[in-house]
Design brief:
Elements (H helix, E strand, L loop, with lengths): L2 H26 L12 H4 L3 H21 L2 H6 L1 H30 L6 H26 L3 H15 L1 H11 L9 H46 L1
Length: 225
Amino acid sequence: MTLYKKWLRAKYGVFGIIFFMMVYVWIHNERFVVHSDDPAWKHYETFKWWLLPHILASASALLLGPMQFSERLRRRYRKLHRVLGRVYVSGALIGAPLGAFIQYRFDERLGMSRAFSISNVVDALLWMIPTALGLIFALRGKIQQHSQWMTRSYAVAIVFLETRVVLGLGGWQASPANFPKFETVIWINLAFSILLADIAISWQDLWTTRNIVAKSIAATRSRQA
């Protein structure tokens, strides 16, 4: 199997996991959006008109993100890639600050801790800054740097999914007794998001270097024999 095929398979595997997380979070956490009789709706109803643009913007970014990493789409449909990219950037720059505002303005008054508000502000900044840098590099025609910063941006975006999947599989319901666990999971996911993004950025280069070294060693041994 060639290096490119290995990289492609790994990439599709990652996006398969992301798709699984999207489905899980929609079923387990976000059903209230379309089912007004869901018990969670009572919590969100008081600030629903703030929540609606946050959901639309953030969901658009989460759904469109994987498409932006398709090399085939970028090569064949450049204009579509740019349009979807603008939607992603808009979703991130609108959804992130709205999420932090909702957490501080409403959720904190309904019993959430100040630590949640701080984590949401940090999450929003970590999502917005790489997104803005990715946009700047794209506008300046520096595509490699643009791709790298957008990878970091999406790695932070999916913290929303990762946190809810971990909490759901762990059986930790939203209650004051579980708030310390919630905070721990959120901070761990935030701490590792950029690191994992940089590993993904360097992964293909790491494999390329490994193959070159292996071939060099094999050639040296062959000459010595």
